[in-house]
Specification:
The longest helix is centred in the N-terminal third of the chain and has 17 residues, at about 110-125. The mean pLDDT is about 95. The chain has a 6-stranded mixed beta sheet with strand order 12-17-16-15-13-14, with helices on both faces. The chain has a 5-stranded parallel beta sheet with strand order 4-3-2-1-11. It is built from 21 helices and 27 strands. The chain has about 700 residues and is α/β, with parallel strands linked by helices. It binds 1-deoxynojirimycin (NOJ). 1-deoxynojirimycin (NOJ) binds near residues 181 and 474.
């Protein structure tokens, strides 16, 4: 038996041992990843025979032939199969489809997000795959950007915490590896346009964009994906400072880096920093990319570069060692116990999905406590709106409907609930009347009067509006964030009926919803709710559970107000546009409950600390209602005077706590030196002496304060 098959050696030792036996071509093959939909059938066959290191977008049933061909190669190195399991193993029809990352982030529930990761890993592994391209750690501050739905929202700290939790869940049983993406600054591209240049300084990178990835490194994330774009005119793919130095050397990243789709090619064809794919391949590898996703010429170019003596083997050896180490860690070389396919979409996974879906919903308005709906008063309910019965809109991006290729007419094998089905299921004693009312995109395609006629006959109207997949995702940035089509006309006409108007939003990103805030009796944000979004909405309306989600992203009044994230620096000319009212419609951290939480008695374990000390903040929270509820307690800080400007508020802690009706709970949170630090003008992370304002509350506008002195 060769040493690399000795299970008593560490993954790294086994990788080094195998590496020492490999030819240059065998090594380079490990560095390439190929998808069936970019090459001809003949080329695909060739890559399989070469024993290419990785394939993507292959589902379990199609892996057998590739594995067989790898087993025919000299060293029989198994390929690693990557898949976009973005919110569940969502490219596989029949798997558990969770709410989108944006929706789940509103739960602020790290335990459930970890569980979601564990469940997804099981389903992916049961399907015979090893690697998922998740989580997205991009920061969604420009709402025009098409991929806001894929993020954990706008706050770097929250993204770091939730990212670490989901990576832990994905990788805890060693079934698969995660991929933190897109490294770096992808969501911040100029004008909110996907894959464009990002104008950020090194200091800003360290303050805002790097911390979630550092958390991912500390959580042993198996891989990182290089973003498409560029920072200050250097493509990320060719960015030695950001990839090799910052990620690998400084953050101590131990896994491997994969480029995004065709990034190597784009260095030549789009970003134009390389004359040929060969030059682009050299640049990418030297900068720190270990695997190239889908630039088919990469393999031949790299072989030529070595033969011509134009690339140092040390880069190739390090890349291959990292890739092989992950393969050993995952047990791809060893006999593994198979996970039964029965887990895919199983009832235990559905239960976890239900829990996180419930906690992801955000109650934004509840005028006169119209919710929960009172039993007995309501006989007929009109369910209206383009997203009331549209599972594609509810799923959002990255499911088998849209990827790897768009497939509009697939019939879901999942037992899914739109809001219409949810309402019929929960309100069994009521007549449920349905009309679509209008289209999301085409304002001429409407049935507003028919919908209004149903509303007239009903005791209450539940309208489901929002957006559809054509309006977000890759290549689909949006300049106008108003409700599209005739949706606002529909809402205004329904309002005229005088019936209580409950509005449910199913959308990929924040839209401009000021009219809805002012005019709807209740307003609920779902974002993309997965299999069970519609059921959870109906349960919440019926009071079967108490809503507990809070927004992980702010909502502007007007499209041109974006970016409108909460943690900006203070300006001094009022900060408002002359033609739009100041402030957001809803801020990060906002969300209501059926309970009423009252905060009192904020206190610090010490009022003065040294720079390397921690402090504990405590607060008493009373549930002043007769219903048990979960509260997301949020802790923000502000460095009052510092050598460099700091944001007006920064989230530095949160806790989700269950507080029983009438009960008072003391919640404590720790603030450590890292939480108090800033990145100074020399790009160093330091704690400065001075005053820190500490804010603890139910959202970022409503809090108690305490002062801390740092000596
Ligand atoms: C494109 C996307 O940017 C990335 O998020 C995804 O994982 C890969 N390509 C693979 O589909």
């Amino acid at each position: 038996m060769e040493d690399y098959m000795n299970v008593n050696l560490s993954a790294d030792e086994r990788a080094k041992c195998l590496l020492s036996m490999m030819t240059t071509e065998e090594k380079i093959a490990q560095m390439a990843q190929i998808s069936y939909n970019v090459v001809s059938a003949e080329e695909y066959e060739r890559f399989q025979k070469l024993g290419i290191g990785s394939f993507l977008h292959v589902l379990g049933q199609d892996t057998a032939k590739i594995k067989e061909q790898a087993a025919q190669t000299r060293l029989k190195i198994p390929p690693i199969f990557g898949i976009d399991a973005i919110h569940g193993h969502s490219l596989l029809n029949g798997s558990t489809i969770f709410p989108s990352q944006l929706a789940m982030s509103c739960s602020f529930n790290t335990d459930l997000i970890r569980e979601m990761g564990r469940v997804t890993a099981k389903e992916v592994a049961a399907d015979g795959l090893d690697w998922i391209f998740s989580p997205v750690l991009c920061i969604a501050r420009d709402l025009r950007w098409g991929r806001v739905d894929e993020t954990f929202g706008e706050d770097s700290y929250l993204i770091g915490e939730l990212g670490a939790a989901v990576i832990d869940g994905y990788q805890c049983d060693n079934l698969i590896i995660a991929c933190a993406k897109h490294y770096l600054g992808y969501g911040e591209a100029t004008g909110g346009r996907d894959a464009y240049d990002t104008e950020v300084t090194e200091r800003k990178i360290r303050e805002v964009f790097l911390p979630p990835f550092k958390r991912a490194c500390d959580s042993n994330c198996g891989s990182v994906m290089t973003a498409y774009g560029s920072i200050d005119a250097t493509p990320l793919t060719a960015n030695n400072d950001i990839l090799r130095k910052m990620l690998k050397e400084e953050c101590g990243f131990e896994g491997f880096v994969v480029t995004d789709w065709e990034n190597v090619r784009a260095l030549m064809t789009n970003q134009k920093v390389a004359k040929s794919i060969k030059d682009a391949s050299k640049m990418a590898v030297e900068a720190g990319n270990d695997m190239s996703m889908n630039t088919p010429k990469f393999y031949d170019c790299m072989c030529e570069l070595v033969n011509e003596g134009r690339i140092d083997m040390k880069y190739i050896d390090d890349a291959v060692r990292r890739i092989l180490k992950v393969k050993f860690k995952l047990g791809l070389f060893d006999k593994k116990e198979k996970i039964s396919r029965d887990v895919i979409g199983c009832s235990e996974h559905r239960k976890i999905n239900m829990e996180i879906t419930r906690e992801s919903l955000v109650l934004l308005e509840n005028k006169n406590n119209i919710l929960p709906l009172k039993n007995g008063d309501i006989k007929t309910i009109a369910v209206i709106g383009p997203n009331a019965d549209d599972i594609q809109a509810q799923y959002g991006d990255w499911t088998y409907f849209s990827h790897p290729e768009p497939k509009e007419n697939v019939v879901p094998e999942n037992d899914y609930y739109t809001v219409l089905r949810g309402m019929k299921t929960i309100f069994v004693d009521c007549d449920i009347l349905y009309n679509k009312g209008c289209d999301i995109m085409d304002s001429s395609n409407e049935s507003i009067e028919e919908a209004a006629a149903l509303a007239e006959k009903s005791d209450i109207v539940v309208t489901v509006v929002g957006d559809c997949l054509k309006q977000y995702g890759e290549f689909r940035d949006r300049a106008d964030l108003e409700l599209s089509g005739a949706q606002l006309d529909l809402l205004k006409r329904l309002k005229k009926t005088g019936k209580p108007l409950i509005c449910v939003l199913i959308n990929g990103k924040p839209l401009c919803i000021e009219w809805l805030k002012d005019n709807c009796d209740a307003l609920i944000e779902v974002f993309n709710g997965g299999d069970l979004g519609g059921l959870a909405v109906a349960e919440m309306l019926a009071g079967r559970f108490n809503p507990s989600g809070k927004l992980s992203i702010s909502f502007p009044r007007h499209s041109a107000q974006t970016p409108c994230y909460y943690n900006q620096y203070e300006g001094w000319h009022g900060g408002r546009y002359m033609d739009v009212e100041a402030g957001n419609v809803y801020d990060f951290g906002y969300g209501m409950s059926y309970s009423d939480f009252v905060y009192d008695n904020i206190r610090l374990s010490k009022n003065e600390i040294d720079k390397d000390e921690s402090v504990i903040v405590s607060v008493d929270i009373k549930n002043n209602s007769d219903i048990d509820g979960k509260e997301i307690v949020q802790l923000y800080i502000n460095d009052v005077v510092s050598s460099i400007m700091t944001p007006v508020k920064q989230l530095r802690g949160f806790k989700k706590v269950l507080i029983k009706a009438g009960e008072t709970k003391t919640v404590t949170m720790n603030i450590n030196p890292e939480d108090l630090s800033l990145i100074n003008k020399n790009c160093e992370r330091i704690v400065e002496s001075g005053e820190i304002e500490i804010m603890v509350g139910s959202n970022n506008q409503d809090y108690l304060t305490a002062r801390l002195t740092v000596r």
